[in-house]
Each structure stands twice: as structure tokens, then as C-alpha cells.
């Protein structure tokens, strides 16, 4: 089977399909397609063709059709950001998020941010949810309220001490309104900055800008919290320096004041009382330094941290990553008790607050916002990063085929393409191949990462 060996212990269906693939004449091409997707778990299958002609002579310079491919299809990566759905595509998404966040920290002219951005005041802020009842935790060097000193990987961490008195309705309503809390926070932040600068909001806006990039993460108790890079810019955004009054201390104080002001009112409905939703008291704001000095977090650490959580969702709490329509599914899916109660609360509250779509987002424990967002001027966009990658690959392909660049003023080529959707996913044998290829790619990346420091040291010694 080419360079792939069949392991023992495969179920008969997968093994038979794998043997069928190995005997097929297009087996090497199937492996190549799967490898080009990075071992995508659920690739998109397309039927279609492309033809590139010289518009002057009418000659066909290149043509491609999926009719020559195994099964008559071309496989493309699904692009799903969730590691629980597709680890291969999630790795790409995390990489894009890393470069997006890093570009807003260290600067990258190619991505729309100058190198001078390192001199702007920047902080890494974490905004959390309030308490909905005591849970098992690790409060510093003290034992938990249950009297036990839990290890870091204790399965009980985040689980309520008394589930019957835990405010599950409040927890899922808070998650559901978390994006509103963040929106009001950004509004109040600008107001607090102007207040501390002794300026009107209009004057402060004319002299400075506030940019951010954030990611949502679930705590073990199932509550969403936000990690955000918040940065001072000048009036023209990242290309201009902030005014002298826009200091790190002013930004930090304004964040604390803005978070304390935010309040979202939920009116009473049915058996549910009126609620006022606020941020929790555990607000952490840390300066970001260009270089680590043993005390502050670095740009590299922040970008890596944000990218890590950009591919995760509520499944980290024990829930599932797909919609749940009724409570009976919770038992069938063997969802643990705590997340099951949160999901059940969403389903119970949906008829009471139909506009909040809690049933649709029950598997997300009520949260319905985007996991990774940024302000317009923070840095580049994920779409721009993807387009750059696509353009690079297209240029590689043109070079390999000897085709001219279509952007060249002297180019006389025209490409016509026709594609139709032909399904998605793998056969059982292809799924095993994809998993094997994905592990090989991951192993190669880890090996390269481990060897990079030694390589740089050798190059430095040689220089």
C-alpha cells in the first residue's frame, strides 16, 4: 500500500474499504489529494473543469477535469475552525489567527500594520463571568471549599458543589448575552478614556483610536470569558502614534472602570425574575512587552495563547459540538451532568425568551457570538490571509505549468472554470488514510519545531 501500512485492529468495514483503495489504480492520487488537504477530516468534493486559453490565438494552454481523478472528484479542505471537527483545518485557522494577532502586536507592513506599533500602549485583558454558585476549584495554595486540594487535572474542577442550588438559568443567560456585554464594554471604554484624559468624547476620538483583537474561551464551569489585546493608536489608527496622554496606566484604569459600568438588563418573563447581567470581579489586565523580562507577558505568548483558543468551543466542558434538539439526546450522547444541566436550562428557557434562540445554541451553553473578533483597524483580516495563501498557491501552480501571470499587462490568457458540489466526507478507508497523513504532518511539524533552536544556534556559530 504505497508508503502506508495497514494496522491491526481495524474494524472489518474500514479494513475492506482500505484494501479496496489500495488495489485501485488511483490510490496514489487519492493519497496525494488527501495530503494536499492536510488530512482534512471532512473534505468537500467537487465535480468540474478549468480551461486556460490564449485569447489571441485561441490555443488551449492548460486544461483540467475531475473526470481524470479517482471517483471523478477533487477534494478540498473543509475549512472548519473547530479542532473537535477537523484538527487539520483547525491548525490552519489557528495559524491564521496567530498571524492576525501578532501583526497587531509587532507590526507587519505586508499585513497593514507598521513596525512602530510596538511602541503603542498595549494590554492583554481577561474579562470573566460572575459567580452562579460555588464550584470545585483551586484557590491558590488553599484547599477547595469541599476541603480537598485538587490537582490541576481533577475532573471535578468547575462542577458545582451543590448542583441543585446552582443558578443554571443565570449561567446560560449570561453566556447568551456575553456579546452584548462586550459591545457595551467597548462603548464605555472609549467614554472612560475621554473622561480620564479630560477631553470630550469627540476630542478624544479625534486624537486617538482604540483597537482590539479578542477570543472567547469556556471556563471549566461552562461560562464564557474573553481574552483581548487592547491597543492605543493615534488618530489615523496604527500608522500614527498615540498622543502623549494615551498612556498604559490610563488605558488600564479605563478598562477597569468600563468593565464595572457594564450592565445588561434581562426583563422578567414567565417564572424567571428580572436580571442584571454584569462582568465578574476577576478582571485581569496585564501590559504586553516587546521582549520578556521575566515579569510581563510577551507578544509571542499572547499571540500563541489567543490562537490556541480560537479553535476550541464548548466541547471542552464536556458538551457536544453539534446542535441538540431535546433533552432525551443528552442521555443518548452521554453528556456529563453539569453541561447536561446547562443545555437543559437552554431548552427550558427557549420558550420564555424565544428571541434569544437558546435552543439553537444549547450545545454552546447559550453562547451565540463569534469566537474570534477584532476591530477594523487592529490588523489584517482572516480573509486577507486566506487570499494571500490562495494567491501564493495559484502562482506556484502557474509557474509549474509555465502559464503567465494573469495580472501581467501583456498577458493574453483567459481561464474559464465550472464547478459543482458533489458531496463531502470520506469513505471509511479514506478516513483512516486522512488520520494517518494528519498524524505524519503533525509529527513533522513538531520535529521541525524542536530542531529549529539548534539550527539557529548552528547558523549563529557559523556566522
From TrEMBL:
<dbReference type="InterPro" id="IPR046828">
    <property type="entry name" value="RepSA"/>
</dbReference>
<dbReference type="InterPro" id="IPR048241">
    <property type="entry name" value="RepSA_streptomyces"/>
</dbReference>
<protein>
    <submittedName>
        <fullName>Replication initiator protein RepSA</fullName>
    </submittedName>
</protein>
<dbReference type="Pfam" id="PF20199">
    <property type="entry name" value="RepSA"/>
</dbReference>
Amino acid at each position: 500500500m504505497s508508503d502506508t501500512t495497514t494496522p491491526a485492529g481495524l474494524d472489518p468495514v474500514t479494513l475492506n474499504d482500505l484494501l479496496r483503495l489500495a488495489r485501485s489504480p488511483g490510490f496514489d492520487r487519492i493519497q496525494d489529494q488527501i495530503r494536499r488537504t492536510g488530512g482534512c477530516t471532512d473534505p468537500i468534493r467537487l465535480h468540474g473543469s478549468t480551461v486556460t486559453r490564449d485569447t489571441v490565438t485561441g490555443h488551449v494552454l492548460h486544461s483540467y477535469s475531475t473526470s481524470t481523478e479517482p471517483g471523478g472528484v477533487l477534494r478540498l479542505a473543509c475549512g472548519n475552525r473547530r479542532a473537535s471537527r477537523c484538527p487539520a483545518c483547525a491548525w490552519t485557522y489557528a495559524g491564521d489567527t496567530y498571524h492576525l494577532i501578532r501583526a497587531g502586536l509587532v507590526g507587519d507592513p505586508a499585513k497593514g500594520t507598521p513596525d512602530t506599533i510596538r511602541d503603542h500602549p498595549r494590554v492583554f485583558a481577561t474579562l470573566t463571568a460572575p459567580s452562579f454558585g460555588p464550584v470545585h476549584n483551586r484557590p491558590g495554595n488553599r484547599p477547595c471549599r469541599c476541603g480537598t486540594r485538587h490537582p490541576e487535572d481533577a475532573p471535578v474542577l468547575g462542577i458545582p458543589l451543590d448542583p441543585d442550588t446552582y443558578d443554571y438559568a443565570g449561567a446560560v443567560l449570561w453566556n447568551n448575552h456575553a456579546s452584548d456585554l462586550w459591545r457595551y464594554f467597548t462603548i464605555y471604554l472609549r467614554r472612560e478614556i475621554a473622561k480620564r484624559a479630560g477631553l470630550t468624547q469627540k476630542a478624544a476620538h479625534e486624537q486617538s483610536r482604540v483597537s482590539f483583537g479578542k477570543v472567547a474561551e469556556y471556563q471549566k464551569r461552562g461560562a464564557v470569558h474573553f481574552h483581548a489585546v487592547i491597543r492605543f493608536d493615534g488618530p489615523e489608527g496604527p500608522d500614527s502614534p498615540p498622543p502623549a496622554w494615551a498612556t498604559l496606566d490610563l488605558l488600564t484604569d479605563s478598562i477597569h472602570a468600563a468593565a464595572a459600568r457594564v450592565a445588561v438588563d434581562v426583563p422578567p418573563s414567565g417564572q424567571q425574575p428580572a436580571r442584571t447581567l454584569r462582568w465578574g470581579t476577576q478582571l485581569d489586565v496585564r501590559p504586553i512587552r516587546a521582549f520578556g523580562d521575566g515579569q510581563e507577558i510577551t507578544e509571542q505568548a499572547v499571540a500563541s495563547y489567543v490562537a490556541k483558543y480560537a479553535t476550541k468551543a464548548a466541547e471542552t466542558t464536556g458538551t457536544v459540538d453539534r446542535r441538540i434538539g431535546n433533552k432525551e439526546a443528552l442521555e443518548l450522547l452521554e453528556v456529563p451532568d453539569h453541561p447536561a444541566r446547562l443545555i437543559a436550562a437552554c431548552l427550558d428557557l427557549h420558550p420564555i425568551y424565544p428571541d434569544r434562540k437558546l435552543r439553537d445554541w444549547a450545545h454552546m451553553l447559550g453562547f451565540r457570538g463569534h469566537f474570534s473578533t477584532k476591530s477594523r483597524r487592529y490588523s489584517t483580516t482572516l480573509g486577507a490571509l486566506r487570499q494571500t495563501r490562495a494567491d501564493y498557491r495559484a502562482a506556484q501552480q502557474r509557474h509549474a505549468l509555465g502559464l503567465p501571470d494573469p495580472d501581467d499587462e501583456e498577458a493574453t490568457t483567459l481561464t474559464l472554470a465550472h464547478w459543482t458540489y458533489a458531496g463531502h466526507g470520506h469513505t471509511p478507508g479514506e478516513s483512516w488514510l486522512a488520520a494517518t497523513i494528519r498524524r505524519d504532518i503533525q509529527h513533522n511539524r513538531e520535529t521541525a519545531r524542536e530542531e529549529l533552536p539548534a539550527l539557529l544556534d548552528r547558523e549563529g556559530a557559523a556566522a
